[in-house]
Amino acid sequence: MAIPLSRRMDFSEIPQIDGAGLRSGDDSRGIIDELATACTDVGFFYVRNHGVPATLISDLRVQASQFFNRPMAEKLKWKINARMRGYLPLDYSSYEGEERAAKSHQEGFWVGYERHVSDRTPLQGPNLWPEDQPGLKNAMAAYFEAVEGLAKALQRGFSAALGMQPHGLDRCFSEPMSLLKLNHYPPQEAPESVKHIGVVPHSDSGAFTILWQDEGDGLEIQNKSGEWIGAPSIPDTFVINIGNVLQTWSGGRFSSTPHRVINRGGRDRYSIPFFVNPGADAPVGPLKGSGRGQPVRFADYMRETLRRTFPVANIP
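RESULT FIELD:
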């Protein structure tokens, strides 16, 4: 499946959007125009007034620190499995055997929906939880539920920005396959290769991502000229970015923009991405116009993408 080209611009700043209107269902032209411009020209934006309680974020940040500060031998008890659940080890290899092969100076912990495994959705299944840290499960579950509310508000906004009815994308998100991840980036003052930084340059594969990041800088976004633009932490905001699926649905109108992370701040950096993914049977192809051939099922696309990106998970 070829991802349509976008019209990403030579931006120098990342826009901010007030999420209060989106959450209330306000589809006024002003808000939707702002959203459409951000998605089209940059592919990234900050959202404020997002409605996710600060206590949920701080609780999860504490639990993340407790988990990642464990000895490596303990963390590996919950090593990531073929359903993308569990601990992603520090300095894991990505895109193994390909031109983009690299190591990411990062460790993570992944969870998703607790659903039965089936041939139709092989990436679904139970999560892996440290039995001696029940607070981690509680904090991730509470955060997952809260950020889903923001995801649904953004889905309505994206629908309107694409000229659809506010609930036009709902059919694509029936039983979504979204994933929540905790990230820890140890400091890295002077990396010598772009193939060994916090996260190597990439575009997200799903529909869109809702990212919380702590006060440490590190996220960088590439504009059309190839310049890397910093996306510093702004208090009480999330960073939202378009993924390959939403770029494809839009026929290239929205931009799934390359980004990377380099933690040069001299201290540990934490972030919490929520990868908003559609349902297993959602088509990965333009929603309007004459796409050639039969669209790929999202479940098949996601399985192949994650298999290539994270060899450590041993996805068949």
